[in-house]
Amino acid sequence: MLRREIAAAFKHKPGPGRRELVVLLSVPVLMTISYYWGTTAFYRRSLSGWFGLQGEAAQLAPYAWWGLSSLLWRVLVPCLLIVGILRSKPEHFGFKLSSQHAKIYLLLFLGMLPLLYLASQRSGFASTYPFYGGARRSWQLFVLYELCYLPQFVGVEAFFRGYLTFGLYPRYGYASLLIMAGPYCAIHFGKPPLETFGSILAGIALGFLALRSRSWYLGALLHIAVAATMDFLAIWNNGGFGA
Q1: Does residue 128 register a pLDDT over 90?
Q2: 163: closest CA among 8, 9, 28?
Q3: Between the chain's N and C termini, which has fewer beta carbons within 10 Å?
Q4: Neighbours of 18 (CB within 10 A)
Q5: Average pLDDT over residues 24-47
Q6: Please, what's the b/e burial string for 74-89 (b: 16 or more CB within 10 A of its CB; e: otherwise)?
Q7: For the residues 63-89, what does the mean pLDDT come to?
Q8: pLDDT value at 15 more than 90
Q9: How would you label 176-190 residue by residue, b for 16+ Cβ within 10 Å and e otherwise?
Q10: Quick one: angle between helices 193-213 and 175-186, nearest 10?
């Protein structure tokens, strides 16, 4: 009896199709590659002696590696999978410019400002951001660091709100947001707990807006703005540049 009930339950539940299988299998593979070979830690451990960089360039290079690796494994490779394996178009996965819901994204950023200011005063955030301590020394180093660091958020949005969410949406609908929220939360492990818990709600909200606008680009812009503001406020609340 139990076996028949289980068989009947699976019979009436649509399983993943080819599109979903490719996405669900490739996401953990690409996340693993990014974790082991796309981080600042990997660069410092294995690549720092390759390029002969000195001074600030050597200090900033790990963050440039992080940003470029994110664009490679979270943007370029998923696009290749979309075109080469799924025989689809990247724009069907949110890879297209759109200004739809721009006011909502702006309101979200403005609403985040007080929270970012309060968070920047907490020791956990103040000691974490910016990741590169040299960015605290001057405006110039701050800007250079952000140019190296911020591109990785384009990869984050393309991968989680684009490739993963749009990849699962045709079969699973808005439940794809809940599926995406798990691995997205996981990449925040090691950061302040408040930020990690907040990533669950933020990921779902950004995913919903991406689906509604058929694009993740403004989500990437919002993510970049929030991250840069967090870095700046953490420096500001610790005495400013050069303190």
Answers
A1: no
A2: 28
A3: N
A4: 10
A5: 97
A6: bbebbbebbeeebeee
A7: 98
A8: no
A9: bbebbbeebbebbee
A10: 140
| 150/124 Cα distance (integer angstroms) | 21
The pLDDT tens digits for 196-219 are 999 999 999 999 999 999 999 999
DSSP 172-241: HTTHHHHHHHHHHHHTTTTS-HHHHHHHHHHHHHHHHHHHHHT-SHHHHHHHHHHHHHHHHHHHHTTTST
| Sign of the CA dihedral running 78, 79, 82, 83 | negative
Q: Work out the average pLDDT over 73-87.
A: 98
Token duo for residue 243:
């303190």
Q: Are 114 and 121 in contact (CB under 8 A)?
A: no
Q: What is the pLDDT of residue 125?
A: 82
Contact assessment for residue 185 and residue 203, using Cβ atoms and an 8 Å cutoff:
yes
- Specify whether the CB–CB gap between 75 and 155 falls below 8 A: yes
Q: Which two tokens stand for residue 216?
A: 């993740």
Sign of CA dihedral 181, 128, 43, 243: positive
DSSP label at residue 170 = H
